[in-house]
Every structure is written in structure tokens, then in C-alpha cells.
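Field log, afternoon session.

UNIT: design team B
ACTIVITY: writing a sequence onto a fixed backbone
BACKBONE:
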């Protein structure tokens, strides 16, 4: 079941929410910030019970 995760955009610093499909397992993808529209790299890691989501700029 997809989960809603609250994060801060690495560009503008605004609070954003991303929908993460945890059962799909680990993933890395690019998604635009809904506030400033800049492309963020999103990394999702799961260990079965916990989800870790990190966002970073494209040049990190």
C-alpha cells in the first residue's frame, strides 16, 4: 500500500509530501518538487518494516 511521506525540498526548503510505494522495495527515481518544479533525486529504502526516503539535488 502506498504511503505518504513528508519531506523538505532540497532546493527551496518547502515542506512537500511524496507518495511512496513501499511494497515495491528499494527504488531511486527523479521527481519534480511540487512547489519549485526542480527535479529531485528520490531514494527509497525498505527493510521489511521501516521505510527510509531521502531527497537530494541533481548535482549532489
Amino acid at each position: 500500500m502506498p504511503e505518504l511521506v513528508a519531506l523538505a525540498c532540497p532546493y527551496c526548503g518547502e515542506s512537500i509530501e511524496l507518495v511512496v510505494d513501499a511494497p515495491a522495495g528499494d527504488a531511486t527515481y527523479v521527481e519534480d518538487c511540487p512547489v519549485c518544479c526542480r527535479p529531485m533525486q528520490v531514494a527509497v529504502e525498505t527493510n521489511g518494516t521501516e521505510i527510509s526516503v531521502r531527497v537530494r539535488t541533481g548535482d549532489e
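LOG NOTE: The longest strand covers residues 39-46.
NEXT ACTIVITY: expression trials, pending approval
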